[in-house]
Amino acid sequence: MIKIIKTAKTIKNNTIELIETQNTNYDKTILIIGVFHGEEPQGEYLIKEYLKTNPTDIKNKLLIIPCLNPDGKAKNKRQNANGIDLNRNFPTKNWKKTDNPDYFGGTSPASEIETKFMIEILSDYKIDAILSIHAPFKIVNYDGPAKELAQKISQITGYPVQADIGYPTPGSFGNYAGVERQIPTITLELPEDDKNEHLWIVNKPVFDYLANEY
Fold first, then answer.
1. Calpha distance 214→212 (Å, rounded)
2. Which domain holds residue 52?
3. pTM of the full predicted structure?
4. Which of 67, 127, 142, 181 is most exposed by smallest CB count within 10 Å?
């Protein structure tokens, strides 16, 4: 069975859920995150499709956040309701205030409910690997000691591995979890022009691999 084990309410009173597979005997703990950015809903779709398979008889425990940014998703906007890019709001060594509204990380790091929710999870659980699902670049980006995992996911999906996204990402979750905490962190960038049903066919084996083989 699966169970909601932690929730948070956004400023728009939407609920963020952390779901756990209730397998008591497990090897590793994998965190899977959808919808960091509100205009990238594909991750939530894939996660919900995977949850329909009732993943309980699996080797690893899965911690799953179907939608981290429900306020942004409701408006089809990258940022949350405060106009902040959650993927620039983490208290990393390289965090800095930016004037670019598209990537505005707030006036101070970890200012947002959604960011604090993620920080608490990483504090409360020993996470062995993280999969964060984004769009639209069709690449497997990674932070921290995740090169081998990135290569495996690339083999599964056919998306190329790209260690550098191509532009600075101060205050990013990848920096916070992967670089500074040395948790293997994958940012799976899906192609935005692909239909959800095909994305599921391509990426279901990624979920299966993390659940049963990693």
1. 6
2. 2-25+35-212
3. 0.97
4. 181
30 within domain boundaries: no
Q: What total number of domains does the chain contain? A: 1
φ, ψ dihedrals at 86, nearest 5°: -60, -30
Q: What is the C-alpha separation between 139 and 158, in angstroms, rounded?
A: 9
Give the separation between CA 62 and CA 140, rounded to whole angstroms. Answer: 20
Distance of CA 80 to the CA centre of its chain: 15
CATH code, domain with 172? 3.40.630.10
Q: What is the pLDDT of residues 38-69, one digit of tens each?
A: 999 999 999 999 999 998 899 999 999 999 99
Q: Is 176 left (phi over 0), alpha (psi -120 to 50) or beta?
A: alpha
Residue type, 19: I
Rounded CA separation 74/191 (Å): 21
Note whether residue 135 is domain-resident.
yes
Radius of gyration of the chain (CA): 16
The structure tokens listed for 136 are: 């639209």
Instruction: Evaluate whether residue 59 is within a structural domain.
Output: yes
DSSP reduced 3-state for 191:
coil
